[in-house]
Amino acid sequence: MEGRARAWLSGVCEPGDEGAWRLVARLGAEGAVEAVRRGRVPSGLGITERKLAGWRLRAESFDLEGVLFLGEKVGGRILCPQDPGWPTTLDQLGESAPLMLWSRGCGDLRQLCLRSVAVVGARAASPYGRRIAAELGAELAERGWTVVSGGALGIDGEAHRGALAADGVTVAVLANGVDVPYPPRHEGLFAEIARTGLLISEWPPTAHPTRPRFLVRNRVIAALTKGTVVVEADLRSGALNTAHRARDLGRHLMAFPGPVTSVMSRGCHGLLRTTPPTTRLVTCTDDVIEEVGLIGEGLDRPDDSPALPRDHLDPDSRAVLEAVPATPAGAPAHAIAASAAVDLPTARSRLSLLAATGFIDRTRTGWRLRPTP
């Protein structure tokens, strides 16, 4: 009954409404349903008569049984705060926390979000942003991280596709019912996400998105994950709303820089300019994992500097090579051994090796560096 009551409230009270949350906290879900139906709610909860009238009007046309049937038809499930799979990080949203979630797919949402990163950005993404998002999604998935995004066109879609391409897990947080393919061109993408990951929403099946619902949805993306990465965003992008939510929740906030001439990176650059700094500049997946992972995770990455032939030499060979002069006359083996602080047999064997591999040449009086072409 608890799940049915919360499902009814999800279709009657708009998600994110603090008055609805306080009503459930006071009366319980079933008590809240009865109070709304009677049109009598306790005072002091911030629920105006106008709001209550709106809820009752919506209740007249809300078909709970039909919604439950459609949800079950697409494999949807109801997830409530008392369920084992409920991510407790959502409770940090306080009075704007979700009353329940509709989920479609496989996997335990709580477990999936223990190692998760939100990847968000512009819908009208540039080729640069799309590439970064796809690579980031794939590389995070390969490292065992769940990629969370909003299922929208542009950066969101590319991040989801990248994770799927790497046989990883991704979660799409929707601003509409889990049975509604929005945007329509992502119908196939959502089906694939549901097959291996999860589609989740606070709105019941058949619900369609509105502009305000996207902003309400963003708080869930921020709360579910360890950190949020903004790949591309203009100054009025909804991704910045997610970023601000993540910052307010104390989550790691990261942004990729872009060309200074690109309007699609103005939002990222704005985040990076904030004082005091609250956004970390990242340029690769290792940077992201270094931020959100356990202490030391991501720090074992290889040096990004280009490798030189001498980098592959053993320590004694490098020491001997450093001691070989570049002068035409060169230096004898005993002098090179003393300079390199190795014994004479070691110096001789390494000099022969270095000559064979093209680092040095033998002269009449000793050894010298081979001139660079």
TrEMBL record:
SUPFAM superfamilies recorded: MCP/YpsA-like (SSF102405)
Residues covered by the Smf/DprA SLOG domain: 78-292
Sequence similarity: Belongs to the DprA/Smf family.
Name the UniProt record assigns to this protein: DNA-processing protein DprA
Taxonomic classification: Bacteria, Bacillati, Actinomycetota, Actinomycetes, Streptosporangiales
Gene name for this UniProt entry: dprA
